[in-house]
Amino acid sequence: MRRTIIAGNWKMHKTVSEAVFLIDELKPAAAARPDVDVVVCPPYTALDAARRAVEGSAILLGAQDVFWKASGAYTSQIAPAMLTDLGVRLAIVGHSETRGRFGVPEPDFDADVLRHFGETDATVNRKIRAAIVAGLTPICCVGETLAERQAGATDSVVASQVEGALKEIPAAQVAGLVFAYEPVWAIGTGEVCEAAEANRVCGVIRSTVGAMYGPDVAEAVRVQYGGSVKPDNAADLLGREHIDGALVGGAALKAADFAAIIAASPTG
To answer: pTM of whole model > 0.85?
Structure first.
């Protein structure tokens, strides 16, 4: 039985004091569900304070990204060991926003600006490799845009992203990974993929892993759904065969909403 994982991606929200306050509010919800991995992913600026805030609680600390080099002249990048030194246990990798794929188009993000968000399958692969070596659990995000879905390319896009992310990674390491299916068109838009379809695409992720590594590894990999997860749709999503948790955006910023999503997780 795969263990449910509910992770909150705070994105570019929360000051240090706000982060600590939110974590304190979430502690009872996490303590009430010892069968669920509850993760918070604050911005880098709040990680140290968050480390102290989660100490002794059931909440795990995650980061929103990680670089693949151990050190060097890489201005603004964060090495894996810098995260583990802060008690970080997981790291989001390949989020659609770092890939420059936004659910709600930014009016001032033209082609030149979007080059700032240059994540590719190759860099995702490097980050996963480095994270694993450092002892971090990657949460690898995959998902299609609205145009790709309308073109009937959902499965091929998702499978290609999974294959690129896992290139030349040994099966023993893949089994411990977490994937997050995040249809780009449902991120921050209020739109949510129907639970049956979300489950189907999460199954595509699992079958892609299976084709690469065999059924045992495929059954071990955990797959989250992310994309406008809210208290009122969480139970339906989380009760599906191939959905092992949620990567939560906006609702993770409100203690009551995030707690309700944790509580909606099926019991093991």
So the answer is: yes
